[in-house]
């Protein structure tokens, strides 16, 4: 078997362990909301993926590590069987975190043994394909682990920081959440018939295919992201109180939830002043006004764009612009995922993978919007021009932000 693949597997699994290393056992077992998962569950589920889709199929004399884990750590694969309810993952006090570590070690050892076997081509090729999928799946959960632990820590009155280790920065590329941005600029694109989607070289998820032609009208797109300072102006102008700026469903959501600012923002009230603060992976910090606004829902992003006299880009516009951008002066990657107005739907000619792994993307192509780019916690090697992230319109706990677009040149600031 390919020793390089085995080396990549070991490094990826070590990177996940490094993310959990700064955490206490109590940190790893709690679920802060239904959309988030405990760290312990992430550690177990990524292991379950390799056990279920690879060892069960290719390992001689396969025996499950624990029969109950097949249900406990199945996320949404109906083709595999039942799943423990997502909103109740924080109630799984057993197995213990110690047992989950043992589970990971066991599966890692068995995977290493599998890599050492001389398999026939008929088995080696599909095995390599599934391992590669599993590695990228693990990277997705590395990012989710960080966004989920940030949400959990934000609920703690002590507002504890996540202690980022330097070894993690090298493996997972956690960037500073407060990178200042350059002055606003607009770039024009002529439109016409373009091609979007993955070109077939290197790894890709099935939802990025097939590459296809699409017509777009001429458009302008901002070369940088919307900042906290700019979004604060929207708040101070009554943006959260003006129903005319919001889609109907967005206005219903904002009023029902009584929202007045982005997730993780809070006012610091003292005897002398009232200033904004933001909870970050480094704990509670003064709001970095020139950093990109983050943890914004689609509804909030769309309302802001309407307020400023612009709009959000389509995913075709975004991919066209990002493919031609000067990335020394444009921040398409590495800060926040960027909302588009494109519903998450299949590309023309899309075909899901066969079997249970075909549930990976296709079954979610409804009632969600596409985000493009990558964030400050996206792992190294997990960023692609054609990558299609997706979340419901109300999702805010991910590092999601705003890039503006327009069909005509907007007024300059």
Tags for this model:
single chain; 413 residues; alpha+beta; Four Helix Bundle (Hemerythrin (Met), subunit A); paralog of FGE (formylglycine-generating enzyme); 2 domains; four-stranded mixed β-sheet; three-stranded antiparallel β-sheet; 10 helices; 13% strand
**How much β-strand is present in the residues?**
5-15%
Oligomer kind? single chain
**CATH superfamily assignment of the largest domain?**
paralog of FGE (formylglycine-generating enzyme)
CATH class of the largest domain: Alpha Beta
Distance N terminus to C terminus? 58 Å
* Overall geometry: globular
Averaged pLDDT, please? Answer: 93
* Count of domain modules: 2
Number of strands: 12
Number of helices: 10
Remind me, CATH topology of the largest domain?
paralog of FGE (formylglycine-generating enzyme)
Structure description:
There is one protein chain. The protein has helices at 3-20, 39-58, 69-72, 97-115, 121-154, 166-172, 228-236, 248-257, 298-308, 315-324; strands spanning 186-189, 192-196, 212-216, 219-222, 265-269, 274-280, 283-286, 337-343, 369-373, 389-391, 400-401, 405-406. By secondary structure, the protein is of the alpha+beta class. The protein folds into 2 domains: 3-160, Four Helix Bundle (Hemerythrin (Met), subunit A) (Up-down Bundle); 186-406, paralog of FGE (formylglycine-generating enzyme) (Alpha-Beta Complex). The strands form 4 sheets. The chain has a 4-stranded mixed β-sheet with strand order 10-9-8-11. A 3-stranded antiparallel β-sheet has the order 1-4-12, with helices on one face. The termini are far apart.
